[in-house]
Specification:
By secondary structure, this protein is an alpha+beta fold. The protein is built from three helices and eight strands. It has helices at residues 2-22, 27-30, 35-45; strands spanning 52-62, 66-78, 83-96, 103-118, 122-139, 142-162, 167-176, 189-197. An eight-stranded antiparallel barrel has the order 1-2-3-4-5-6-7-8.
Length: 198
């Protein structure tokens, strides 16, 4: 009896070794996690972060007659090597001492843009702003103000300059196709800013 049991155990051990030694362990067939594959998948899950850039326009100017602050951050996503789209909030503050009483107002809203790069550093740009601003007017010999929404449709181009491994300054000249009496920016509008990626 002891020899039969030992023979059965020996057969099972040999069968087990045969299965282990000659079986295929390819993860393609068995969906077994391979350490390199799982590491590659983890890295690939964050590839979209490499396509995100942040930047925008940040400006400050002051003199004895006027002050201006522009805080307009931008988050952009690179759709391809040459196409980038982005959006962000806009906040501008103006103060003008040439009037009595002093005129101050804020502009806030949203802007979007799309850029197509060519020749490495040149780009074509289109954009749209939706801005809320103060408008001053005289009624019954009194200075009045109200808030209005203004839409700007921008088209133009520019150039970018590398200032680091993944950081750029840019200068663009944009023309407002929807200019009206409430448009807060000059036409054409020269924009200087920066953009950097992760």
């Amino acid at each position: 009896m002891k020899s039969i049991t030992s023979k059965i155990v020996l057969v099972f051990v040999l069968l087990f070794l045969r299965v282990v030694l000659f079986s295929q362990s390819d993860s393609t067939y068995f969906q077994l996690p391979d350490k390199q594959q799982s590491r590659h998948k983890k890295l690939r899950n964050y590839d979209w972060l490499e396509k995100i850039s942040v930047g925008g326009n940040f400006a400050f100017f002051t003199s004895t007659r006027a002050s201006f602050i522009d805080i307009s951050p931008l988050v952009a996503y690179r759709l391809s090597k040459s196409v980038m789209v982005g959006a962000g909030p806009v906040y501008n503050y103006y103060s003008d001492n040439t009037w009595k009483p002093r005129i101050t107002f804020s502009i806030y809203g949203l802007r979007t843009m799309a850029r197509v790069y060519f020749l490495e550093s040149l780009f074509f740009q289109i954009g749209w702003d939706l801005l809320n601003r103060n408008v001053y007017f005289v009624q019954y010999n009194t200075l009045q103000k109200k808030r209005v929404w203004v839409q700007n449709i921008w088209i133009g181009g520019g150039v970018r300059y590398a200032v680091g491994a993944n950081a750029y300054m840019f200068t663009s000249v944009l023309y407002n196709l929807n200019e009206n009496e409430y448009s807060p920016y000059p036409n054409p509008y020269v924009q200087v800013g920066f953009i950097t990626g992760f």
